[in-house]
């Protein structure tokens, strides 16, 4: 029955992580997968999470089934985090991480809205392609990043969006663009929203790194501007990074609708999709986030821990770019300094990325995406020297 199956193509990001784990080089550095490591190179257990988890344990709650869509408390907390408010126009369900929200959104658009295509930024997170193609959508691109100048192809982006057919689905990153770390400014967002509105497009916002750009509120500028319009749109959000709950697979899908009645019907459709796919979501991660956000003190603790993570990444950007500048690098190190979120699109080419991996055991996602939190005081000089070496003109 299975003899015809061929070896599968490994996932470019996850397989890199596996190779990194196998690597025995004493100075290996993981700058691949989007994971936050602290200054000692460990994935942190946030103090706010630890306390919330201890309280849960003390309560000795039984492991009952949650509602198909997750609890109403989590849904309202997600809405407040994203929009600063709750409104009956929003239908929010719990999802299996940000990826699960994207798949659920894709299934919703395919089965309930008869969408067969989506437009994503060029470039975008590799798994966007896999998720949307896997859900049966044809994936097209709109121009986004200019590898030569290291800036946005903003006019070309607007031109393409302006030429899309009415109702076309457009995937956008509200902050911390993955993989380029290059975001739109508030005025550019207003121009994009204007086109989305004029052309009556259907935006799908993927916010997986809320809080890693300029701050929890600032990173939601585009979403909050969207809510001021009458437009329908989707949002996938994730708690993997900003609460460091990677393995709990916790996120949300929010659909902004025209009316409360529509929102109720959309939620019903999402519940149908969830029930026939995995029945209902897991509860441990959602209970942690619920109690963390419901308690003023814990919430404050989390916000300041998130700020510490954000600031440490910025410091690493400054250290690496300063080291490259001092070493006379030919690489445009200003990108590394100025881009936002966990990633930098360094401009290192595939061959240089391969050399870094095979000569130095430094792992980046090709072509040239670096996950900055893998850097720390102990390895930044090693990485700087390696990059100077592989970028040295022949
Ligand atoms: C990444 O882009 O590295 C992260 O979003 C993790 C993943 O699942 O790929």
Number of helices: 14
Helix/strand-derived category reads: alpha/beta
Note the main sheet. 7 strands, mixed
Query: Largest beta sheet: what is the strand line-up?
Result: 2-10-9-8-7-3-4
The average pLDDT value, as a whole number, equals 97
Total strand segments: 13
Strand content: 5-15%
Helix-strand string: HEHHEHEHEEEHEHEHEEHHHHEHEEH
Bound ligands, named by name, code or SMILES: (2S)-2-hydroxybutanedioic acid
- The gyration radius over C-alpha positions equals 21 Å
Low-pLDDT runs:
none
Regarding quaternary structure, how should these chains be classified?
single chain
Note down, in words, how this protein is organized:
- There is one protein chain.
- The protein is α/β, with parallel strands linked by helices and 394 residues long.
- The protein is 44% helix and 15% strand.
- It is built from 14 helices and 13 strands.
- It has a seven-stranded mixed sheet with strand order 2-10-9-8-7-3-4. A two-stranded parallel sheet has the order 1-12.
- Helix 4 runs parallel beside helix 5 (126-134).
- The N and C termini lie far apart (53 Å).
- Bound molecules: (2S)-2-hydroxybutanedioic acid.
